[in-house]
Amino acid sequence: MTASLTDLIDNSFPIINTCSYLNTASSGLVPRKLIEFRKQYNEGIHSDYTKIDYLEDEKIDGLREKIKKYFHAESSEVALLPNFSIGLNFIVESIPENSKVVLLNGDYPSVNLPFEQRNFEIAYAEINEDLEQNILETVAKFNPDYLALSIVQFISGILIDFEFLKELKSKYPNLHIIGDATQYLGTEDFKFNASAFSAIGSSGYKWFNAGTGNAFFILKPELIDILKPKTLGSNSLLTKPNGPVRKVGFLEPGHFDMHSLKSLGVALDFHFMDIGIDAVEKQIKSISAVAKTEFINRNLLKKEVVNRKTHSSIFNLKGDEKILNKLHQHQIIAALRGDGIRVGFQYFNNQADLDKLLEVFDLKK
Q: Which CATH architecture has domain 3-31+277-363?
């Protein structure tokens, strides 16, 4: 990164000057720009009537268009929500009963539970180094209507192969693929319209550093056309009080939380414009590639990750609570997940953060 960009990042996240924050996979840091916006917004709506959001629909439409632009989804529909889990439940509730669904065994609970709690036929593919082959075999045997999965696995960091999904969709054109992108979007440039996904959703509080209370789903017409929505409200209508239902109105039945959604807009602009998605992607991929090599050399990764050709920015290292406490003593912020210690590299992480992490693990030898 350029010196000016490094300065911008240091000034935006002052906490990274006091610790190595490797916990974005749990919750992203909030940049100074967003903190200042929220303060001004809260003060403004209580002291200046011109700051009240009278033009809610216009501003929401602007955020939708921004999301379409950043994720190359111009021909798709965007829905705005408080979190990913609510959105997926609304979508799953709209899927015809007795549909056949493939899930991943051990995937994030907010992906699997909405399907498991409803009347679907379900088959599971295993998460390991042969993930794509496992999915292919399960789909070939089960012939499902839907495949739902996390793009990046929240414990291991395993990243699904997008080219595989395209080949799968080409072979099974009636298969609708729904992705949880919360641990993926924001780490690299992603073109939704060119992908195999019928829908993706993401909360904003991780890799967008947007704080809590905001999320979005992007849906292609091919999926919207076959859904049978059951969740509707006044806000679902194109015009109130008796207008037609908007295409994604079933995902937005009530009033918007303008504070949280405007925060998402500010965070996305900071991420994609101030920093730049190319710089974000380059830094994350660079530090993650070096990290994987170092982790392999120290036997800190499981075979299922070591044997993968590509990987995300999230790693689960062999370790326990004792080692985690030692990391915290050295101002390294990580988290226990599964049977190991999860770390994740954001664009503000660098070689110094990695060296500091490795030093602690080397001390235990």
A: Alpha-Beta Complex (3.90)
